[in-house]
Amino acid sequence: MRSALEGGIVAVDCSWNRLGRRGGYPLEDRWLSSMRVRRRLPFLFAANPQHYGRLGELNTAEALGAALYVVAGRETAETFLGRFAFGASFLDLNGEALEAYHRTSGPTEVGILEIERFSGTGGPAGAAPARSSAGAPR
């Protein structure tokens, strides 16, 4: 997190559908390739009107707000997300997870929290139980 506080956060405002058709990020770009630390956001639920409730389908404002929360805390994220109609809903949907991610020391702990959150034992309220390969709840 120190590197984000010192070097900043980058948000890519693009259509993920189009990015996929192009083959991903243009890694040959000197600016992108010069970034020393690259991390993805933890899995979160969208609150924007186009993708409400969908896992991982955040718009750029939600992604940037989530990054601000993880790096700088809730107050900073609230200040930023308060500019958007869906900002409060985004924090309602993801606030508990974002707070847990904010308290971690790095990506390894975030990964452990994600496994717990989506394994069926530590998932968000109302989440379906994890299923075995036979399709029965565990």
What would you note in describing this structure?
The chain is 49% helix and 0% strand. With 138 residues, it is mostly helical. It has one domain (2-114). The protein starts with a helix and ends in a 20-residue tail after the last helix.
Brief characterization of the structure:
The chain is mainly α.
What's the total count of β strands?
0
Please tell me the total number of domains: 1
Which class best fits the helix and strand makeup? mainly alpha
Averaged pLDDT: 76
Topology as a string of helices (H) and strands (E): HHHHHHH
| Integer-rounded radius of gyration | 16 Å
The portion of residues assigned to helices is 40-55%
- How is the main sheet built? none
Q: Assembly type of the shown chains? A: single chain
Proportion of beta-strand residues? under 5%
How widely separated are the two ends?
A: 36 Å
Poorly predicted sequence stretches spanning 5 or more consecutive residues: 121-138
Q: Shape, please?
A: globular
- Number of continuous helical runs: 7
List the helices and strands and how they pair.
Blueprint: H1 2-7, H2 16-22, H3 30-33, H4 60-72, H5 74-81, H6 87-103, H7 107-118
Helix pairs in contact: 4-5, 4-6, 5-6
